[in-house]
Amino acid sequence: MFSNSPSVILDEAGKYTLFVTDTLTGCGGMDSILIRELTDYPPVPSGPDGELNCIQDSLVLNDGLMYTVDHVRLTWNSADGLILSDPSLISIVAGAPGMYILEAVDTTNGCANLDTVQVFANLSRPNASAGEDVLIDCDEDFETLSAENSTQGDSILVTWTGPGIDAAQLHQWNVQVDVPGIYLLEVMNMHNGCTDYDSVEVMYNPDVPTTLLFSLMDPVCFGDTNGLLNIQTVSGGEPMYQYSLNGDSLSAELMYSGLSPGTHTLAVVDANGCRLDTTFVLQQPDSVEINVVPFVELSIGDSLQLFPEFNIPMNEIASIDWSPGEWLTCTDCLNPVFTGIQDDTITIKVMTIDGCPGEANIIVRVDRESTIFIPNVFTPNDDHVNDWFTIFSDNSVRQVLKMEIFGRWGNKVFERMEFSPGVEQLGWDGTFRGQPLDPGVFVYRIEIAYMDGRIEVLHGDVTIIK
Hints:
single chain, 466 residues, mainly beta, Immunoglobulin-like, 5 domains, four-stranded mixed beta sheet, 48% strand, rod-shaped
C-alpha cells in the first residue's frame, strides 16, 4: 500500500517503510517496521460432562483447575442451567442440569474461543411399598412386613426402622416384628442416592377382653377352704372364652369351689388368644374366739363359776359343750360351776349357727391339802356355846361317812352316818339314850370321804367338861 498521510490503518501483516523528505533542502530519511498477524485463539478447558443426582444437587465444573494463560477474560453462561458462583472464574458451581458455555477472550487481540459442557440430571426415584397396616393377634408371636412390592434391583437398598427392628433385619426385604408401632421403609437407588419412603403401622388386635365380671363367696369359717367363684360375663374379645384359675390349665368352667382364703389370679382367654388377667381376694373369716381364764388354782373341793366371753354375738352361737362334765354343774349352759377335785383341763367348745367351731381350755391345778379340825373338849350345858361335838373341815371333805363315840369301857354312846361336816347339830350332844353323861374322856372314830374319793378314818378322844 502507499499513503502520504502521517498515519495509516493496516489490515495486513508485512514490512512497512516510512520515507520522510525535506521539501526545501531535498534531504530525507527512512525507517521500517514489521507488522505480524496475531490470530491464535485462547484455550477453553470447560472440562468433562457431569451429573446431578439426589445426593449431589450441585456440581463444580473444572474443580481444582488452575488457568494460567495471561490476557484472557473468561465468562461462563448457560441458557437452561443455573450458575451459583462467579462466572468469570475457570471453576464454577452448576446448580441445575443444562448446557454450560465457557467463553475465553484474548484481551490483546480480541480473539475469542468457546467450549461447552453438559450437566445431566439423574433423579429417577425408586418406589417404596411397605404394605397395608397389620394387626398382631394375641395368639401370634409376630407379623411379617414385606418390601417386595417396592422397586427391586441390584442397586436397590431397603432399610427398615421401627421399634421391633434389630440390626440383623435392618436391610431385609421381609422382616418379622412383634412390637406394635410405626415402621418406616426407605428404598434407595444406590446409583443416584434417590430414595422413596413408605410406612406401615403394626397394632395389637384392639378387640381384646376388657372386663370380667364374677361373684365370690368367702369361706364360711376360719381355716375353711370352701370359697366359691362364679364367672358371669366377659366384655370384649372374641368368643369362645376359656378361663384359668391360679395358673391352672384353661377350661370353659364357670364355677370354681373349694377355694382357700387369700389372693387368687383369674385369667380369661378369647378365641384369638387375647388374655385378660385379674386378681380377687377371698377374705379369711374371723375365728370364733373364746376368752376364758387360762389357768386356775383351787383348793380341793372349792368351786368356781365359769364366765366365757366371745367375739361374736350370743345369738350366733348354736351350741355350747363343756368337758369333762364330771365336776361341772352343767355341760351345755353358759356359766357352769366347777368343783376342784383333781388337776384337770376344762374345755369349752361352741358351734355357731354357720357351723363354725370355737374352742378354749382352762387348766385347773387343785391343792389336795385338807384342813380338818376336831375339838378335844366341849361343854354340853345348853348355853349355846360349844354344846356339840363334830368334825370341821374345808371343802375337801365331801361327807362324814360315820362318826362313833365310845365310853371308857368301850361301850358305844353315839353313832351317826352320812352327814356333812361342820354342822354342829348333826354332831354329838354329850348324851346317851337321851340322858346327859357325866364329865369324862370319850374316844371317837370318824370315817370321812374326801371330794377326790379318798376315804380316811380318824381316831382320837374328846373330853366333856361341865
